[in-house]
Write a structure and sequence with these properties.
The complex is a heterodimer of chains A (135) and B (600). Chain A is an alpha+beta fold. Helices cover 39% and strands 25% of the residues of chain A. A 6-stranded mixed beta sheet of chain B has the order 2-1-6-3-4-5, sandwiched between helices. A 6-stranded mixed beta sheet of chain B has the order 8-7-12-9-10-11. Chain B is of the alpha+beta class and 600 residues long. Classes of the chains: A alpha+beta (135), B alpha+beta (600). The complex binds iron/sulfur cluster.
């Protein structure tokens, strides 16, 4: 049974998946940079949530749930409503579509992001595969 | 609207042309309004390079208003490349300065006996001798004219040697390298012996509800700055998404014959940013600033390559060097050539050479092998100067292919070379290219962005798989209508502005109370009017075609194996547009529904 999204257990599942997925390891072997997913509240999620994922050379080094961003500076910050994050994870909303329709905000080095589109899409695939139940 | 300055270059008579008030709301401005104004003048037997051929330069109601990416204007007429409707839009600062002179457009007819330039100092127009400017490139005329009229603030629009030589792919350029490149209107300007137009104004840009507009534009620009697409365009330029397009098999290689190319990752905004980028440049009031400033190792700051330059003088020719693309881009700008058509025609020559249809005996000994940068550079010089083998290329890819009995090999539609977005990577572009009023153009609709997700519920623009077929035809038509609105206002397509925001800005600028439906309808009206112009000019359903090479699947890459179901798509498109299934002519009911009774 998969962990509920979003939760620390879901992040742990994701970490395990990323660290065991051969395709992801291959595609992401040059990726360097941690990321914070900011889940903005909506009808389902009452408070914002900050899911931290540290990715390095095809592996996931660390995960955490933060209380706030504070003065921390992750390489990338992805911001969307809880519902839109979930739609991306479930394959109902294409990640590029989410970005181009302003449903997903992206902050960070765009050169790195665009250079690594296949990595990003494969990361989303892995995250989708560990997503079952949600709030 | 402010009047249009009308000039007959044969008689040197100036007039003010007042636009009928009802046309303003029906056609919005710029591109669609130009079609309305020129409707009666564009006839099938009109030679685009004759004195009778009109050249209309027109701004839109948002030009120069500091709205989001709204510093743009258009040029229009009859294309010497396609002999159909010609339209090209351009940024920079010139259009804004024209409006500050108290004019919203300049309408040129006739032909001068000797080279002239127009100097518009406020509302005072003056035609001056330009013999000394003839032969100068589009960068040189900037400096020369500003020095001559004694104002660094003046803005200059003009042609290079390509326009003087009436090459059907010559564009009209302003500032340093801002191009109204497509459809060959630089040749029309050259045929009139008009080298340049310098403008300097100090008036106010008219706004119907200035206080409201100013508040709205602050919010709109703030939101645009935060938009993710803006981050990509601002940080990485127009080639910001190049890697993704390459990944999808949407970036053409070896003249549309290959899906992959070793080293193509160097052809991207990221690569430029990480190697040669030293700054950014914006058109008037634009918060995106997609223009690149680069140093290619000679210590000089120069215009960097946009996506089309990187691909046209890159993978299109089997090359992957952003510095070479920068240099060729600048050469095109200086000569006053449309970069897409020039590099596309050179690409065809390389392809014919590979197939053995032409040989070194035809090319004055040049080896046109994929990856040969020197030959491409030589051909570009020859093309602009109509010299050697280049003289054949100067007529464009359709003429070049016909010369060698290889018409089906030319990747063009109705005489205009394809932009560097392969429809096999994003199938909506197949319809865009086949039905665009100006040939294979991506500015009438950049549907590849909709194919990767830039859609909008409020416009009824849904998301379809990039390889979907006929089911997306109506969506493509709506996207074309929406971009027709943009080309009329004029707003840059790179600005991802929510439709409601744009509507509010238009209403505040013009004092209207339009809703989104009315705006879309104006777009459809403009699109349909251009269709009617083209039908008058001889376009037939048989012209709504994709070039043969694109109907075959690519062998490799992100679109490998995919074949475009073109016929079904086109048939669904005609239905969605209310056009006759056989002839492609808009029905009388459709014309009346759109308020085009006068041509029904
Ligand atoms: S996005 Fe680029 S081309 Fe468009 S208006 Fe801004 S600077 Fe000009």
């Amino acid at each position: 049974m998969s962990a509920i999204f979003p939760s620390i257990e879901w992040l742990e599942d994701l970490k395990e998946k990323l660290n065991s997925d051969e395709k992801y390891a291959r595609l992401a072997k040059k990726w360097e940079g941690d990321m914070l997913c900011v889940l903005e509240p909506d009808e389902t999620l009452k408070e914002p949530m900050y899911l931290y994922i540290d990715l390095w050379h095809g592996k996931c080094r660390d995960i955490a749930i933060w209380d706030e961003i504070g003065d921390k500076k992750p390489a990338f910050i992805l911001k969307a409503s809880y519902a839109n994050f979930l739609r991306v994870l479930r394959g109902e909303l294409d990640p590029m579509q989410a970005m181009l329709t302003r449903k997903l905000g992206v902050k960070g080095n765009m050169a790195v992001m665009m250079r690594n589109v296949p990595t990003v899409l494969d990361f989303v695939r892995c995250a989708g595969e560990v997503t079952g139940e949600a709030l | 609207m402010q009047p249009i300055l009308k000039i007959n270059l044969s008689t040197q008579i100036f007039e003010e042309y007042k636009i009928p008030a009802e046309w303003e709301r029906d056609y919005l401005g710029a591109a669609s309004l130009a079609a309305r104004i020129l409707y009666d003048d564009l006839t099938a037997d009109l030679d685009p390079l004759s004195p009778e051929s009109p050249l209309l330069i027109l701004t839109g109601p948002l030009t120069g208003t500091f709205g989001p990416a709204t510093g743009r204007f258009i040029v229009a007429g009859k294309s010497p490349a396609t002999r159909l409707w010609a339209e090209s839009n351009v940024g920079g600062f010139w259009g804004v300065e024209l409006r500050k002179c108290g004019y919203d457009g300049v309408w040129l007819t006739g032909k001068s006996d000797s080279p002239l330039y127009l100097w518009l100092n406020g509302t005072k127009p003056e035609l001056r001798a330009a013999d000394h400017l003839w032969g100068q490139d589009t960068y040189q005329i900037q400096e020369s004219l500003k020095a001559e009229i004694g104002s660094k603030s003046a803005k200059v629009l003009g042609i290079g040697i390509a326009g003087e030589n009436q090459i059907p792919m010559a564009g009209i350029f302003c500032d340093h390298g801002r191009a109204a490149g497509r459809t060959g209107l630089g040749a029309v300007m050259g045929s009139k012996n008009l080298k340049a137009i310098a403008v300097l104004g100090n008036g106010e840009i008219p706004l119907a509800r200035p206080d409201k507009y100013k508040k709205l534009r602050v919010l709109a620009n703030r939101a645009l700055k935060e938009d993710p697409l803006t981050s990509v365009m601002s940080d990485l330029g127009s080639a910001g998404a190049a890697e993704y397009l390459d990944y999808l098999g949407e970036m053409p290689k070896k003249y549309f014959s290959a899906g992959t190319l070793e080293g193509s990752e160097k052809i991207s905004g990221s690569s430029v940013a990480e190697t040669i980028l030293v700054g950014k440049k914006a058109c008037h009031g634009c918060v995106i600033a997609c223009g690149r400033v680069v140093d290619i190792g000679d210590g000089e700051k120069r215009k960097g390559p946009e996506y089309e330059a990187l691909v046209g003088f890159g993978p299109n020719l089997g090359l992957t060097d952003p510095i070479f693309a920068t240099r060729m881009g600048e050469l095109c700008d200086r000569y006053g050539l449309d970069l897409i058509s020039a590099s596309g025609t050179i690409g065809l020559a390389y392809s014919l050479y590979e197939q053995g249809i032409i040989s070194a005996a035809d090319t004055d000994g040049l080896a046109l092998e994929w990856g040969n940068a020197d030959s491409a550079e030589t051909l570009l010089h020859q093309l602009a100067r109509r010299e050697g083998f280049g003289a054949l290329l100067a007529q464009g890819s359709l003429a070049l292919a016909r010369h060698f009995n290889a018409e089906s090999q030319a990747v063009q539609v109705n005489g205009l070379e394809l932009a560097y977005h392969d429809p096999r990577g994003a199938s909506g572009m197949a319809l865009v290219y086949a039905t665009s009023p100006r040939g294979a153009c991506h500015n009438q609709s950049d549907y590849f962005l909709a194919d990767i997700g830039q859609v909008d519920d409020s416009l009824g623009l849904a998301f379809f798989d990039r390889h979907a077929g006929a089911e997306k035809a109506a969506n493509v038509a709506r996207h074309q209508d929406w971009r027709t609105v943009g080309n009329s206002l004029v707003i840059c397509h790179f600005a991802n502005v929510p439709p409601q925001t744009l509507l509010d800005l238009v209403n505040a600028a013009c004092g209207w109370e339009l809703d989104l439906d009315a705006l879309m309808r104006a777009g459809e009206r403009g699109w349909t009017l251009k269709r009617m112009i083209n039908l008058n000019l001889g376009l037939r359903a048989a012209n709504d075609r994709l070039p043969e090479p694109l109907l075959k699947a690519l062998p490799d890459g992100g679109a490998a194996g995919y074949e475009i179901p073109f016929d079904e798509m086109l048939s669904a498109y005609y239905t969605a547009r209310g056009w006759d299934a056989e002839s492609g002519v808009p029905s009388r009911e459709k014309l009346i529904e759109l308020g085009l009774e006068y041509i029904a």
